[in-house]
TrEMBL record:
InterPro entries per UniProt: Phytyl_CoA_dOase-like (IPR008775)
Enzyme Commission number(s): 1.14.11.35
Cofactor dependency: Fe(2+)
Keyword Oxidoreductase: yes
Organism per entry: Symmachiella dynata
Domain of life according to the entry: Bacteria
GO molecular function: 2-oxoglutarate-dependent dioxygenase activity; iron ion binding
SUPFAM superfamilies, per the entry: Clavaminate synthase-like (SSF51197)
Sequence intervals crossing the membrane: none
Signal peptide: none
Entry protein name: 1-deoxypentalenic acid 11-beta-hydroxylase
Pfam families: PhyH
Keywords tagged on the record: Oxidoreductase
Length: 263
């Protein structure tokens, strides 16, 4: 668990590389609760959608713009995520949305190379002053399709995106050149570890051809000063209420007991 704020070196690395990894940001109990609740969450399962990857696979994900009184909101609102994000971006942030990526064994699809701002630009966000944090629920490895990033690619600026399958991917010509010039990093994570990454960082993942699932929680934040100038399917600015760290276990335990009682 993160006991102290991130350092100036961490912030410098984020701006230089476009991402930082924080091992064991959440403890075993917190991640076990998140994993058990997510896998038993029938509403999330009903709202999950599939995205074809252009390689014959499909990625399942469940996206939410709303924060309820639940464990997902406790993660999004906690200082370890929201507070760290404000340090990295240099100002107030708000919840843009969050999602669970459900990459199942043997059938979980790939994500094409893309930048998140490649999508979010069209939502009325003038600047790429946005970032995401991916928290590993399961162990994330090359075998089960972990996140891949191109170190420093956020400095390229926004790249044009085109449709690939059901996904929107970055211009293949520019990606090919970026792959020649920039370091490809496989971001392998233990459960509870997290990677914070800039909205212009080029990233992707392979299909999961292993027998191990790769579920992750991704919390996406926009800066308050970057409030979109038009309505879209993701929210405009509203203040993000911060919850104390202990709410994760408190809400998680209550939510899990409720689920068990309904079975």
């Amino acid at each position: 668990m993160l006991d102290t704020p991130i350092t100036t070196d961490d912030i410098a690395a984020f701006h230089r590389d476009g991402f930082i990894v924080i091992p064991h940001l959440f403890d075993t109990e917190e991640i076990d609760l998140l994993g058990k609740i997510a896998r038993a969450d029938q509403l999330m399962a009903a709202n999950a959608s599939g995205r074809r990857d252009g390689e014959g696979g499909t990625v399942k994900l469940a996206i939410s713009n709303e924060l309820e009184e639940d464990i997902y909101a406790a993660f999004v609102r906690c200082p370890r995520l929201a507070g760290t994000m404000e340090q990295l971006l240099g100002g107030e942030v708000y919840h843009y949305h969050h999602k669970m990526i459900l990459k199942e064994p043997l059938i979980g699809g790939a994500w094409e190379w893309h930048q998140d701002y490649g999508y979010w630009y069209n939502n009325g966000c003038l600047f790429p002053d946005m970032a995401s944090c991916m928290v590993a629920v399961d162990r994330s490895t090359q075998a089960n399709g972990c996140l891949q990033v191109l170190r420093g690619s956020h400095l390229m600026g926004r790249v044009n995106h085109i449709t690939v399958g059901d996904q929107t991917g970055a211009d293949p010509e520019r990606v090919a050149v970026a792959l020649e010039r920039l370091e490809l990093v496989y971001v392998e994570l233990e459960p509870g570890s997290a990677v914070f990454f800039h909205s212009n960082l080029l990233h992707r993942s392979d299909q999961n051809k292993s027998v191990d699932p790769r579920w992750t929680l991704i919390a996406c934040y926009n800066m308050a000063r970057n409030d979109p100038y038009k309505e879209s399917h993701h929210p405009r600015y509203s203040p993000l209420e911060r919850w104390p760290e202990e709410r994760i276990k408190e809400l998680g335990q209550a939510q899990w007991e409720k689920i068990r009682s309904e079975v």
